[in-house]
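Entry 12.
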Amino acid sequence: MSDTRTAPEPGGERQARPVTAGGPALALHALRTYTLKMDTIPALIGPGRGPLAVVRFLGLVLLGAIIGAIAALFAVAFVTAVLELNELLLISPRSRMMFDHAGALMAITVAVPALGGLVVGLLHLAIPERRPHAPADVIAAVQTRRGRLPARAGGLSALSALISLGAGASVGQYGPLVHLGATLGSLGARLLRLGRSDDNIAIACGVAAAISTAFNAPLAGIVFAHEVVLRHYALRAFAPVAAAAIVGYVIATNVLERGALFHVADTAVPRPWEFAVFLVIGGLGALVAGAYMRAILGVTRLAGTLPLAPPLRPALAGALLGLTALWVPDILGMGQETLRFATIAGAFGSAELLLVLGLKIAATALCLGMGFSGGVFSPALVIGTLFGALCGSLVGQLSGAPQETFVFYAVCGMVAVTAPVIGAPLTTLLIVFELTGSYALTTAALASVILASPIAAQLFGRSLFDIQLETRGLDLSAGRGRAVLLSTPVAEHLTRDCVTLRPETAVAEAMTALGQARHGEAYLVDARGRYRGCVTLADLEAAREARDGPQTVGGVTAADRPLLRPDTSLWDAMARLQDVTGEALPVVDAAEDAFLGVVFEASIARAYLRHSDEMRREEHGTG
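Predicted 3D structure (tokens):
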């Protein structure tokens, strides 16, 4: 049921507006009411067609290419610096083998990660959140349509990750590269004063260039930016993101001369029954991915309870990592050499694979949970490859089959663990294809992803990034629309254009005030400015007609009206409107119950419609 009343809107304008039960019903009713009106507003139609629109689009593509070039050069410099530090600080297997002094090597193995952790911990004190920024922050900025990544925090986070990786922490390089590229894109958009939609596209360009440069995989960079960051596919965003990825790929292939992530020679075709095994590996890989994610989150919670200053936590983690690495040095650093060897049949025994697998999960959880800066992508690749190699070894031992398809098992394990962790099954498959050029290997990996991502999403969450954001109060499980409304406080729509009365005001006087203001309800505020309830014109009329009715509005039974706080989100306000019929909801200070104003029902409806329309135009490539 609904009726139409005349009520003032924020800013003083009065117009006919619908009053509904609120919540989803409010949104649907308001959508029908305002659709024709909104479609007539030129500002909401988008950039339109014509030469000017083409020029603007080409400019955005050029901006994507420029951001891609800058992000790629920074990625090259970052990766080069990490490799040089690994050689200098005796973290890489090659430098450790060439070092002749065993006693000094043992001391260095423990001291370097510990001192690196101390430097990282002190560096994080300069970041407002006292933690490094990561891909989860990029996703939050885009999905809430805030579109702003602070340059200073981004630079400090990149420096922190560089020190962490250089000192041998068991963390990844791809997460910091993604955040660095996104920060550069956001900075470029901010300097050019672009709008929210273009800002998000610029961020995606930086992300795509970083992935393309790091993996020499432009298709994977494009898909990762859409699959993980933007989470929609728009033609307007595709071209700039593709330009950034191509530029990153060209720079990577001509400047960054690195070996492949893993080497795959001509492989045999798997036997039909092995595809069933690949499916099983996918299901089990989802559990390994879940254990990996839960370990990181668990250590993070544990670190917060330790009676230890935050800067000392990564130092402690570094010391423990170094002590463990005295026996198993494979857990140091990103572990790319371990990954390469794990794809070779017979390079590790089953017991060795199981040991390194368990220790790598524990080491990465320890480093990230205790405060080192770095990503989860690289360790997930190593963990997944070790898991797949372990499965391949066991299958070979049980079946007695030849090991010419061993690499299939390693790669299937890699994608089965990595795809759920980063929430990007398509990206993971494209990385396999672009690195190997093998349809057979990609098809086998697809068999594992079929079960890995859905099972992990049901048991644990879409990705580790989404789980981290949920712990910070941003739930993306219901999509971008809810995230935007949850991040928008009602204070942005607060107004004092309402009738306020003292509790001692006479009923007749109150009715006159409401009639003159053309309002249907008033808010009771005492002499100290504290909120004391809401009365409607119908309540006052009933009190006046009653034989022994109250003489003042304070004695009138106040309407049951939910209270909002200034930081209450629009989403929560819509939920509270479901059982309310009235003009507005009062906003009260949380500490002193001071009346701050009201938020009109129509204001909430218009905000919902505006955000929905902006996202629709962005996702369909028209704005």
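Annotation: Confidence is low (pLDDT under 50) at residues 1-47. Strands lie at 3-8, 14-19, 499-501, 521-525, 531-536, 584-588, 595-600.
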